[in-house]
Structures are given as C-alpha cells and as structure tokens.
Write a structure and sequence with these properties.
The protein is about 0% helix and about 45% strand. The protein is mostly beta strands.
C-alpha cells in the first residue's frame, strides 16, 4: 500500500507505540492542494492486524462527523474496510477495539486518540498526502507524501 512515491515520513505524537495500524488512502478524488484535506474527500482503509490487543475482532476509527467499522480477519495481515468519514488535518480521531465483529458491545481496551498536525497533508516540498496510518494504541502516524 505504501509502495510508490517517497519513503514514509514518521512523526511521533506521543508515547506507547506498538504495531496495529489503521491505514487510509484517498479514493476517487484528487488530492487537495490547499494544505488541509478536503472534508468531501472520501477515503478507504485497511487494518494491519498485528499489534492489536488480544481478543480484538473489530475496530472503529471515528471523528466528530462520522466513523467506520472494520472487522479483523485473523490469520491475515490486512483487513479491508470502507472509511467514508473525513480524514482531515488538525482534527482528533478516536480508535476503539471491540470483541464483537461489528464494533458493538464491550471494548477490548480503552480508546486511543490522535490529532494529526495541521500540515499533515503537505510536506516541505508541497506534495499532497495520499495515505495516513494510525498506530495502535497511539502515538505515531505515517504520511506518504507524493505517493
């Protein structure tokens, strides 16, 4: 998924890192050039299954305007899901893990929160972001500039 373009740029947002990424990539839309991602830009995503808390069968990534649930496919590296909520810079996102396969009922662990920096969709070169990864439980995201 991160095979083209420049190497990933890693930004630390806090402590407590492990694997378990929620990846998002732009779908059917031109990347914006204004310095912040467009609210209308749809994204789709994948879950990297390693590093999630034991007993996790689904995850939900959300922000104030919407959310998306992904069912974890055990024994595989990635689980696909549609993420139609907006992913924008300088907003707070919440990642929750659930025992159920439909993001309902008891959570496996507490929610993790992320805030993408205001310039998350642009590098110093001005190239637009194509992909974002949120790491569970929190603390790091990757942005692929110029992909």
């Amino acid at each position: 998924m991160f095979s083209s373009g420049r190497p990933l740029r890693r930004r630390a947002l806090g402590a407590g890192v492990s694997a378990g990424l929620v990846l998002a990539t732009v779908v059917g839309a031109t990347a914006v050039s204004t310095g912040t991602a467009s609210a209308a830009t749809p994204w789709t995503g994948q879950v990297l299954n390693s590093g999630l808390p034991s007993g996790t069968n689904s995850v939900r990534l959300s922000e104030g305007g919407g959310s998306s649930c992904a069912t974890i496919v055990h024994g595989t590296v990635l689980s696909n899901f549609n993420f139609r909520a907006t992913i924008r810079a300088d907003l707070v996102y919440t990642l929750r893990t659930y025992r159920s396969t439909n993001c309902s009922g008891a959570e496996v662990a507490g929610a993790s929160t992320y805030r993408l920096p205001a310039d998350s969709d642009r590098a110093d070169t001005g190239l637009d972001c194509k992909q974002v990864a949120f790491q569970y439980p929190r603390g790091v995201h990757w942005v692929n500039y110029g992909g």
